Amino acid sequence: MSNYQPRPEHRFTFGLWTVGNTGRDPFGEATRAVVNPADSVRKLAPLGAYGVNLHDNDLIPFDATPAEGEAILKEFKQALSDTGMKVPMATTNLFSQPIFKDGAFTSSDPKVRSFAIHKAMHSMDLGAELGAETYVFWGGREGSEVDAAKNPLDTLKWMREALNFLNAYQMDQGYNYKLCIEPKPNEPRGDIYLATTGHALAFIETLDHPENVGVNPEFAHDTMAGLNFAHNVAQAIDAGKLFHCDLNGQKPGRFDQDLRFGQEDQKTNFFLVKILEDNNYQGPKHFDAHALRTSDADDVWEFAKGCMRTYLILKEKVQQFNADAEIQGIIQELNGGGDSAAAAGFSKETAQKLKAENFDVMALTNRPLPYEKLDQLTVELLLGVR
Fold first, then answer.
1. Less packed terminus of the chain by CB within 10 Å, N or C?
2. Which residues are catalytic?
3. According to the model, what pLDDT value does residue 1 have?
4. pLDDT single digits (tens) 346-378
5. Residue 247 contacts residue 216 (beta carbons within 8 Å)
6. Phi, psi for 269 (deg, rounded to 5)
């Protein structure tokens, strides 16, 4: 993998909102021009990307007339056809418009909640028309700054009603979407409901059809909360719920930076790639990131190339890690002792035998655990000196 050239089979995807980001932030206006969605497709395809993902209004503006929407959609479909690019995932923008200032599915106004479901149904239709197989719900406005304003049990109920309705709608339409909840702890709301992967996994089990609802965890979102993203991805895999995965870069404790994948904390990114590759994750590897505000139009495509190239470099490092005899020997020494008494399950006989067993506590306490050596070897591998 010496040239780290992305190919469609790597299933790398970008959101139209990522490479199309204009560099605007809460303190400054845009530094780049708006990008035509069809042009994004034509730029990404020769870089080796598999596809593009979109919110409804990334493609068709909120205030577009039906005729304008049809023209935009026709041009976009032509770009997909010409390049072979896919649209694996779609979602709804339920956060930009002022009507959602107090939430969409969790707005205190039932009319706003109904409008959000109306908008999501139309967006699901659009995604299905473009071939999307996964549908993501990010509740950016589903939160609070004033806890006295809403009972959080009510907001969970409203969220459940909306997702149950939309799941039933898409099944009735024959879309066969896998639905995903994308957790985030805060921003733009002070506190967002379903803040982490664990929150989302627990909530999913309360839905009418939890079997086709999973999670779309994002590196930046978990890192903002000081969590270990690789651990949360492992929990989603263990639950059979990792339907989609957002990759980017983030410094802990900061605002949602959406940096280039691998720009920060290469070791955590390494273990993220490792858990995805070792477990044969087949879903899209989606870069939900933005070029820096200082980038010009050309530098945006360097950003896109960098996201994919870094993933492939780390994938090669995973292969080296898995083949390194010294590293694997230490891991085997640490974890090769077999199963605990609980592995075979409970029985009265096993319980009695375990209660009667005499353990050499001192020997177990003094067992060597060469974590320092193992971590140093990992760092040296990542730094390219092994």
1. N
2. 55, 58
3. 55
4. 999 999 999 999 999 999 999 999 999 999 999
5. no
6. -65, -35
Q: Which two tokens stand for residue 380?
A: 């040296």
Interatomic CA distance for residues 386 and 331, integer angstroms: 17
Domain with CATH 3.20.20.150 in the chain: 8-319
Q: Report DSSP letters for 61-121, one per residue.
A: -TT--HHHHHHHHHHHHHHHHHHT-B--EEE---SSSGGGBTBSTT-SSHHHHHHHHHHHH
Rounded CA-CA distance 310/262 in Å is: 6
SS (H, E, C) 248-280: CECCCCCCCCCECCCCCCHHHHHHHHHHHHHCC
Residue 303 CB partners (closer than 8 Å, separation 6+): 19, 260, 289, 290, 291, 292, 295
CA distance 163 to 148: 25
Q: pTM (2 decimals)? A: 0.96
The tokens describing 74, both together, are: 């026709």
